[in-house]
Design brief:
Elements lengths: L1 H16 L3 E8 L18 H9 L13 H8 L5 E6 L4 E5 L3 H8 L4 E9 L17 E3 L19 H5 L4 H5 L8 E6 L12 H5 L3 E6 L13 H10 L1 E2 L3 E2 L6 E6 L9 H15 L4 E4 L24 H11 L3 E5 L23 E6 L23 E4 L3 E4 L5 E4 L2 H18 L5 H11 L17 H12 L6 H5 L4 E4 L7 E6 L4 E9 L4 E9 L4 E6 L8 E8 L4 E8 L1
Parallel strand pairs: 6-10, 6-11, 7-10, 11-12, 12-13, 13-14
Antiparallel strand pairs: 1-3, 1-4, 2-3, 5-16, 8-9, 15-16, 17-18, 18-21, 19-20, 19-22, 22-23
Length: 565
C-alpha cells in the first residue's frame, strides 16, 4: 500500500508538470490470453481482407490479432478513463484522462509496458469556415474550353495535363479507370463531399464505401476541413469536360485522423487506427497527404534521426499496412525550402515501403518546397514525383481551382497506380510499386529531390505485361499465320489475346459469358502491323464453361471463344 501511495504521488507530480495533457498512449507487453486465433481470421477481418491475404500469400502474424479483450476491460474499468481508439498492430490504446490516480493505477497492471502523454485537451471542433493548416493557396479558375490533345477516352477538361504528364490516358483508354480498386483516403476532413457535384457519380454509384472521424469518434467527415476533399478530387472528380480525376471509377473509404486545430502525436495514433480499419475492411490502397515532424510542443518533435523509417507511430503503422498487402502512397511534405534538418521528408513518408511523392510543375521542375530525401535511414526518397505546382483541384463549394503542395501530387499519382493495379491484379503491392518506379524518367539516375522521377504509365504497363506474358520474340510464333489468337485455351486464371493489328484506329474489346453478359470491356488505340497483348485476368472466380472475346475496330468484328477449365 505504501508503494502504491508513493507511485500515486509520483504520477501526481508528473501530471502537475504536464497539466495540459489529457490523452495518453498505453502500450501493452503482449497479447496473452487472447480468444482470437490466427487460424480463424474471419473473427477479426472481412472476407475482402482475407481474400487479399490469400491472393498474395500473405501470412497472418501476431500483429493481426486484436488486443487482448481482458486488457481493454481492465483499462476501461479504471475510473475517469475513456478509451478513444486502439492499435492492434502496435499493441497499444489511446485513452483520455486528467486523473493522475487513474494513470498510476494503469501503470500497476503487469501487462502495461508504458503510458506516454501524447496530446492536451481537445480544442473546439473545426467549422466549415476554418482555413485548414495545409492550405498554401487556392486560386479559382474559369472553366477552360476542353480540347482533345491526342486521343483520350475521358473528357478530362482542366485535369488533362496532370494526367497526361504520366501518360495516364493510356491506361484509361484501355478501360482501366480504377474500377474495382478500393482506396482509403486518410486526411483532416472532407468538407461538403456529400453535396459536391464533382463527386456525384461516386455517390450515385455507391462507391463511397464508408467514413469515420477518428478525431471526434463519430461517423461523419463531411463537416470537417476541406483538405481531404481537395485531395480526393484529384482522384475521384468526374464531371466530363470540366474535371476528371486520375481514377474516376475507384471505390473510396474516407477517414479523418488529423485535428486541424493543433499538432500533436495523437494524430499519428489516429492514423494508425484508420490504417488498421482500412486493412480490416479490405482496401487495396491508402492515400494520405499528411506528415509529421514538428509539433505545437517542440519537445515532441521528430528529429531527423527519428525519421528513419522505423521509429514513429505513424511510420510503423504505414510500414505494417504495406506488410498486409496494402499499397500506401504518401505526400513527401512541403518543407524543402526550410532549414537543414527540417527540409527532409516527414513521417510516414520516411517509411521505406511506402510510395512517397514529391511535387513538380507541368514543366517537370521540382518545387522548391517539396521535401528532400533521404530519410534518416538513408533510403531513397521520394519514390517519384507528380504535379503539385498549380495542381487542378476542386474546392468544397465545387469550384475548379489551382492549389500547390505535395498534398495534391500524391493522390494524383495514387489514382494512376490504382488504374495500373486494376490491369494487373495478380501482382502484389511491392511489384506494382517497382514497375511504377522502373517506368520513371530518372530510374537510372535517381536523386534526393526527384527520386526516380516522373512515372510513365504506358511504360509501367509494358513492364508488367512483359512479366505476365511470353517475351516479345515468341509472339510471332504463337500467332503463326493468324492475326488474332487467344491463349491458353482452355484457360484457368487468365486468358490472353494476341492481336496483330490489321489497321490503325481504336479497338474495342468485350469479354462475355455464354449468354452474352459483359464481364469486362477494354478500349485501346492501335497501329497497323504492331502486335498487342490483351489480358483478361478477372476470371479466377468464374465458373467452368465457354466464354467469348469480341473484337471490333469500327469496320470489322471478330469473336473468339475460350473454355474455362
Amino acid at each position: 500500500m505504501k508503494h502504491l501511495f508513493i507511485l500515486v504521488c509520483l504520477f501526481c507530480c508528473t501530471l502537475f508538470t504536464q497539466a495540459q495533457y489529457s490523452r495518453y498512449v498505453i502500450q501493452f507487453t503482449n497479447k496473452k490470453g487472447t480468444p482470437y486465433s490466427l487460424s480463424a481470421p474471419s473473427a477479426f477481418l472481412t472476407a475482402k481482407a482475407i481474400e487479399r491475404r490469400n491472393r498474395y500469400n500473405i501470412a497472418y502474424d501476431s500483429t493481426d490479432l486484436p488486443i487482448t479483450p481482458a486488457y481493454l476491460d481492465s483499462i476501461r474499468n479504471v475510473p475517469n478513463v475513456t478509451i478513444l481508439n486502439v492499435s492492434k498492430w502496435l499493441n497499444q490504446v489511446l485513452i483520455r484522462t486528467t486523473d493522475a490516480t487513474a494513470l498510476a493505477a494503469i501503470n500497476t497492471f503487469t501487462f502495461v509496458k508504458a503510458a506516454t502523454a501524447i496530446a492536451p485537451r481537445m480544442t473546439a471542433p473545426v467549422t466549415a469556415g476554418n482555413i485548414n493548416k495545409w492550405d498554401t493557396s487556392f486560386t479559382p479558375l474559369p472553366q477552360l474550353p476542353y480540347r482533345i490533345q491526342g486521343i483520350a477516352s475521358l473528357e478530362y477538361g482542366n485535369m488533362y495535363n496532370q494526367v497526361h504528364i504520366h501518360e495516364g490516358e493510356y491506361l484509361h483508354n484501355m478501360g482501366y479507370t480504377g474500377r474495382g480498386i478500393t482506396i482509403a483516403v486518410i486526411d483532416g476532413g472532407f468538407n461538403s463531399y456529400k453535396t459536391n457535384p464533382f463527386f456525384d457519380s461516386v455517390r450515385l454509384q455507391g462507391r463511397f464505401m464508408g467514413e469515420w472521424d477518428f478525431v471526434n469518434n463519430e461517423p461523419s467527415v463531411n463537416e470537417d476541413a476541406a483538405h481531404g476533399a481537395q485531395c480526393l478530387s484529384t482522384i475521384a472528380a468526374n464531371k466530363p469536360g470540366q474535371a476528371v480525376g486520375s481514377a474516376p471509377h475507384a471505390q473510396f473509404w474516407l477517414f479523418r485522423s488529423e485535428d486541424t486545430n493543433s499538432e500533436y502525436p495523437v494524430e499519428e495514433q489516429n492514423w494508425a487506427a484508420a490504417a488498421e480499419y482500412s486493412d480490416s475492411v479490405g482496401v487495396d490502397m491508402i492515400s494520405t497527404s499528411l506528415g509529421y515532424s514538428d509539433f505545437d510542443n517542440a519537445a515532441l518533435n521528430h528529429t531527423y534521426a527519428q525519421r528513419d523509417g522505423k521509429t514513429t507511430i505513424v511510420t510503423r503503422a504505414a510500414a505494417l499496412a504495406t506488410r498486409k498487402g496494402i499499397l500506401v502512397t504518401v505526400s513527401a511534405g512541403n518543407s524543402g525550402a526550410s532549414g537543414p534538418d527540417l527540409k527532409y521528408v516527414s513521417c510516414p513518408a520516411d517509411a521505406d515501403s511506402v510510395f512517397t511523392v514529391g511535387s513538380i510543375g507541368l514543366d517537370s521542375i521540382i518545387s522548391p518546397t517539396s521535401s528532400w530525401g533521404p530519410n534518416g535511414a538513408g533510403k531513397l526518397k521520394p519514390n517519384g514525383v507528380s504535379v503539385g505546382v498549380g495542381a487542378v483541384v476542386i474546392s468544397a463549394s465545387g469550384t475548379i481551382g489551382y492549389a500547390n503542395g505535395t498534398s495534391f501530387a500524391n493522390p494524383n499519382l495514387c489514382g494512376l497506380i490504382a488504374c495500373l493495379w486494376q490491369a494487373f491484379p495478380e501482382f502484389n503491392n511491392l511489384q506494382i510499386m517497382d514497375a511504377v518506379q522502373r517506368s520513371a524518367n530518372r530510374y537510372n539516375t535517381p536523386d534526393y529531390r526527384y527520386g526516380y522521377g516522373i512515372p510513365n504509365f504506358r511504360r509501367a504497363f509494358d513492364i508488367l505485361q512483359n512479366k505476365r506474358n511470353p517475351p516479345v520474340n515468341n509472339y510471332e510464333a504463337i500467332l503463326g499465320n493468324q492475326w488474332i489468337k487467344a491463349y491458353p485455351v482452355p484457360f484457368s486464371n487468365t486468358v490472353t489475346v494476341l492481336l496483330k493489328a490489321p489497321s490503325a484506329g481504336r479497338v474495342q474489346w468485350q469479354f462475355t459469358n455464354a449468354v452474352g453478359q459483359v464481364l469486362d470491356t477494354r478500349v485501346q488505340d492501335v497501329v497497323a502491323g504492331q502486335i498487342y497483348v490483351i489480358s483478361f485476368p478477372h476470371t479466377n472466380g468464374l465458373a467452368k464453361g465457354v466464354y467469348y472475346i469480341r473484337y471490333q475496330n469500327g469496320k470489322n468484328k471478330y469473336t473468339l471463344s475460350a473454355m474455362k477449365r
